Each structure stands twice: as structure tokens, then as C-alpha cells.
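User: What would this chain look like folded?
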Amino acid sequence: MIGDLKILAAPIQGITDCHWRNAQHEIFGGPDGYYGPFMRVEHGEIRKRDLIDVSPHNNVATGFIPQILACQPKDAVSMVEVLKNMGHKVIDINLGCPFPPIALHHKGSGLLQYPGEVEKLFVELKKMEGVNFSVKMRLGWDSPSQWREIMPLLSIIEPLKVTIHPRTGRQQYKGELDLDEFATALEQCQYPVVYNGEIHTIEDIADVKAKYPKISAVMIGRGLIENPAMLCTGKSDVEHYAMFHERLLQAYTAQLNGGEHQLLMKMKSVWELFLPNAPRKPRKAIKKATSMAKYNTAVNELFCSM
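Assistant: Here's the prediction, encoded as C-alpha cells.
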């Protein structure tokens, strides 16, 4: 929390799993809550890796909130039932995922084109007892005004909060933020609004709060992945970054059973966003590494050169 403003860690598929969340919380900390990447139903069953990721046993980070992705109400209900049985009391509904393979199947931000389907989803979720919901959404899929038809439907589930990213799904993470449209949505929303989008520094948080004093929180995604020490600058040193990396390496080594190649690919994916301003040469060596031995050598060289 910064002042009276809560700070939330955004869910990013393939990156912010329980191992990342736990490591960021234990080594650096800062967020008041962590949102898990969406869980979903495939071929009639909830993915096993999703069940592992949302298990309370595997989450030590403060204020963990699981997230579901669905267009079919029956799939959403089945996931909520499982999460309730695990003890989760708050569940986030994903109306924001911008990736075409998801969105073009009426899921994530793609569902924002179909208010009738959103209404059916909310009506079924409203029947679920003993659980509250939040919503994470974009302004729309291909139009920044599509939120206007979705906003009245929120009263069906009475969300605890609504996180809004001021882009359309088609923009993904490129192009200008539509801050005017966000400001209008903020004024019209009767539920607490969380701002999400292009926050990379403490100064960015202050700027957003100054511009939109009505927001209840900010949610940070890529900025926190790039610099997991962002919210506690006293730990933004090589030693803590190396500890964070070692924590992830140990966790993935214990989890993955696909051999060295699988572990190598997973650790390389960590560096797609992590420490983008680190020395270029060892970063390139990490990307080109063909074995864990070469990977570890490159990582050691990077930390030594910082």
C-alpha cells in the first residue's frame, strides 16, 4: 500500500504462477494482493496445472485471488465450485485477456462484444452462494466504448471491485491508452475501480493517483515482472535479484519433470521481461543457451556485470 492506495499484482499467463508470486512476496513484497493467471476448462475438465496453481497449500503470497476464464456458464460454475471447496472466498472473472486464440472464442476481452453472453454468465454466477466476485476487463474488444453495455450488467454480481485496462483487446499491449474513456468509465462505475496499465515506477503510481483520485487501487503487471523490487526500492540490488532468480530456479527444478530442456525453456521465459535493462551481452547468452550449464554461466555473468 502506498498511502491509502492499495497495490495489486496483476495476473499474466505463463509468468505469474504460484512460484513467481511466492518468490516476489518472500524476497521483495509490496503488493497488498496477488491475482492468479486464469484457470479454465479444457475438454470438459479443469486443467490440472491450474488446480495446482490455485491450491492454498501452494500460495503463501498475501491476499491471493484466483481468476477464472469462461464463456460458458456451466464451465464457470464448475470452476467456482472447485475454488469454493478449496476455501477461496473471492474469485476474479477475466474479461480482459487480449490474445486472439482466447478472445476469438468469446472469452476474455472477446466476450465484451457480446453483452447477452456476459449477462447469462453473470446470472449463473449470481446463484453461487458463499463467494464474492471481482472483474478484470478492458474497455472493449474492438471498440473502446463496449464497456458501456457491460457496466450495467455488473449489478447482477455486485463485484467487490472492477479492474479496467484502458485499451481494447485488439490493441493487446500496444498503442495509446484511452484515458478519456477510462475516466468516463471510472465516473459511471458504482463499484470500486482499479486502474491497470503501463505502470512501471513508483512515480507512475503517484501520477495515476493524482489524475484519478477516485480509484481504489492500482494493478501492476509487466512493470512488476520487469522489476520485482519496484515497490521496495531498498531491495533493488544484485543480491536480491539473484536470490529471487535462485528461488524460481529451485521451485521449477522441483516442479518440472520434463528434463533439462523443459527447465531451460521455463527459465528462459522468465527473462523475457525480467530486468530488461540488464547488460545486453549476458542477456543474449541466456537466450541462446542450449544447456542448463550454459544458462547458469550466462546468468552468473549477468549478475556479476550489474
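The mean pLDDT is 96. If you want, I can go into more detail on any region.
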